[in-house]
Design brief:
The protein has two domains: 71 residues, no CATH class; 171 residues, Rossmann fold. Helix content is 50%, strand content 18%. The chain contains ten helices and eight strands. The structure holds zinc ion (ZN).
Length: 256
Amino acid sequence: MTETSIMGVLETRAAHCDQHGDYESLLLNVGGKRWTGCPQCSQAAIDRAEAEREQNQVVDLRSQRGQAMFEQSGIPARLREATLKNYVSAGDSQQRAHKQVCEYARHLPERLGDGNGLILMGNMGTGKTHLAVGLIRHCTRNLAVAAKYTTAPALFSRIRASYNSHTETEAKILAELIAAPLLVLDEIGVGKGSDNELNVTYSLLGQRYDERRPTIVITNLMSEEFKAWLGERVVDRMRETNPVVLFDWESHRGRS
Ligand SMILES: [Zn+2]
């Protein structure tokens, strides 16, 4: 047996590639006889496949990172499946609110730069949190940018607990929320609002404003009550960068 026949080469002949010029084509018998094509073309095809695989790996890594960011965002488990798309809007004002939040999502890359957010204001059970979670999902999973969710009461109680903790401090808790590229601060205005709670809220919102990081503020209070709770001056200033989206219809959950 000759060396070539061992390797499955039965014959050779001169061949020509329009792109790469002359080459030697081999007649192989590997599961059927077949003449080999231009080796440079095959190399180019291999390189292309390689590049595509690397590109896919980048996309995979990005989507894994986005998924992890979503998992770590702190959204309520009951709203894990909430998206901007699967928000059911019936009625004009509900459709308007839905559209406003989707419009914000469409421009999120710019908002992550200029720090402008939204105030989702209105009745309980109208899906404000659903839409905010949809924004977080879009931010993390589609844009691979980190986002955090917390309710104000949960934040206050975490801070209170930190006074007896060796590992957590108020500064550390706030720093984490200030650093988040996108923050959803839900349930502002629940409870009386002690001086300390108001100071924490001012500090968080003020520092995020200074750092130009957008905050989605959610409240069940209407405008006047919200001003009474947070302070008129603070609310007026906030509204310059965070337009109000009004959820002023009745609750689906039968609570108001
Ligand atoms: Zn070729």
